[in-house]
Amino acid sequence: MYNIVCYDDLAAAGVNTTLIRRAKSCCLVKICRGMYSVVRECTNPSHSAIAAFGTDREWMRYHEQGLHRERSQRRRYLDHLARLRVLHYPHYRDDDVVWGVSAARLHKLRLFVNGQWELPMGGQQNCP
Ligand SMILES: [Zn+2]
């Protein structure tokens, strides 16, 4: 879901850091250090190894249609990326505890910001 791929899997597929850097302005979004998401179908032949990790069509269609850039969607999109960052953080260890804002994002709890409750984060649907 969300085409999450880690650096090791990209490297195993022959994708180097230079190609990752270039793909970030095309079909790849960095979630956190070493974790990425394939966000669109790409026809660039040099990105074919990256495109192989893009199986969540709804997630790619969301980006291809530019919905993530719409002003009305922007906050929810950024919240969703923050939640993906918490979910896929690669350095958790046994017995680590997630708390505070990260725990709220993980459990989709509303946050109290600037004197009022934020709107609820994305529901169970695939895209924010
Ligand atoms: Zn690409």
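^ zinc ion complex. The longest strand covers residues 28-32. The chain has two domains: 4-64, 72-117.
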